[in-house]
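F.,

This is the one I mentioned.
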């Protein structure tokens, strides 16, 4: 749930900056847009903080109250903590730049840069960074993939939000303004979908490995996500090719276009829910490897949790037997309980 909320907030922040490009010539909506961007970035900062708490709880939580020292172990003595520091730094910077952007519109490209950098840091925790031999390809693929998802689905959600409330069926100037926004958004969406698909295919090839890998729980959840992506893509295609040309002259086309756009966003949300699920599952096992080898070598983050737990034990911190399964904050009950006071 927290991972899904994190992805959603990232997509909204990135999306608000690409929606800024689309809305730049429409006099009605820019002010609303910066308000939504600021709200999304502050929400993102809150979620990033909650992720540290959640990861610390998964490693050490239980009967004992958590202390700052527990979080310090996660932050400074695990690879996950290193990735989190980049994410938190980029998010805080984005919040500041978005505040400045609200004050001066011309700063939106800077906000776009910071938001995209924040999206890129997503890859620094999770499966991408856990694939020791392939990080040079998995980290850029995941990073670019998330940026592209924001420039498409995030931006569409923001456009639908900030343009809500106008009577597009009767208000012709509003409809013409909306058509202008869609015209500027379409090339961005096409570029973003193409990039998303290429980067997603690279990540799939790295993580699934073979067609047989799609029969695993990981592969099945990923296949569901790809189906949701196809549905969203079809909605976008219908809006672009069929409804947009009628938009300026037909109130009914405006109503249909908005309904289809919300469907497109909803399917994107389904894809994000499945992504959060995929992140908690072990990647399919290549032929001839045991599941433990796969967990350790292919980046489930298994080692990370042990590391935090054991470093914490060395420091005399209580561990109740929970252990963070990498980025996705799954807890796995360990069979032993560490209590160094005993
Ligand atoms: C609506 C479309 C999509 C959205 C919103 C989306 C979003 C995301 C996000 C946010 C991540 C997390 C990256 C991370 O935590 O490092 C991700 C990972 C991934 N995506 Fe997508 N994606 C979409 C479509 C696709 C498609 C079409 C493919 C395949 C062709 C794909 C394949 C993957 C793979 C393999 C991962 C890595 C999962 C893992 O951590 O094990 N995605 N996606």
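My design for it:
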């Amino acid at each position: 749930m927290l991972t899904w909320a994190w992805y959603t907030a990232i997509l909204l922040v990135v999306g608000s900056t690409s929606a800024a490009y689309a809305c730049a010539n429409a006099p009605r909506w820019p002010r609303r847009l910066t308000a939504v961007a600021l709200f999304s970035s502050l929400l993102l900062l809150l979620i990033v903080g909650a992720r540290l708490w959640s990861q610390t709880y998964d490693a050490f939580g239980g009967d004992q109250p958590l202390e700052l020292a527990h979080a310090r172990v996660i932050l400074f003595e695990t690879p996950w903590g290193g990735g989190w520091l980049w994410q938190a730094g980029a998010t805080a910077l984005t919040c500041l730049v978005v505040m400045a952007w609200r004050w001066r519109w011309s700063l939106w490209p800077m906000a776009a840069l910071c938001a995209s950098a924040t999206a890129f840091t997503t890859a620094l925790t999770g499966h991408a960074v856990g694939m020791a031999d392939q990080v040079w390809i998995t980290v850029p693929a995941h990073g670019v993939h998330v940026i592209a998802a924001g420039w498409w689905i995030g931006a569409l959600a923001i456009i639908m939000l900030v343009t809500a409330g106008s009577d597009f069926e009767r208000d012709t100037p509003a409809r013409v303004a909306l058509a202008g926004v869609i015209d500027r958004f379409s090339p961005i969406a096409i570029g973003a979908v193409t990039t998303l698909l290429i980067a997603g295919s690279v990540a799939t090839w790295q993580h699934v490995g073979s067609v047989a890998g799609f029969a695993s729980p990981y592969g099945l959840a990923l296949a569901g996500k790809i189906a949701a992506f196809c549905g969203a893509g079809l909605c976008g295609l219908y809006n672009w090719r069929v409804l947009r040309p009628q938009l300026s002259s037909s109130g009914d086309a405006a109503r249909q276009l908005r309904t289809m756009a919300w469907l497109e966003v909803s399917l994107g949300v389904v894809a994000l829910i499945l992504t959060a699920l995929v992140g908690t599952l072990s990647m399919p096992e290549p032929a001839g490897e045991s599941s433990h080898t796969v967990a350790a070598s292919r980046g489930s983050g298994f080692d990370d949790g042990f590391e935090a737990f054991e470093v914490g034990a060395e420091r005399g911190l209580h561990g109740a037997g929970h252990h963070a399964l990498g980025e996705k904050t799954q807890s796995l009950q360990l069979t032993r309980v560490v209590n160094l006071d005993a």
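The longest strand covers residues 324-325.

Talk soon.
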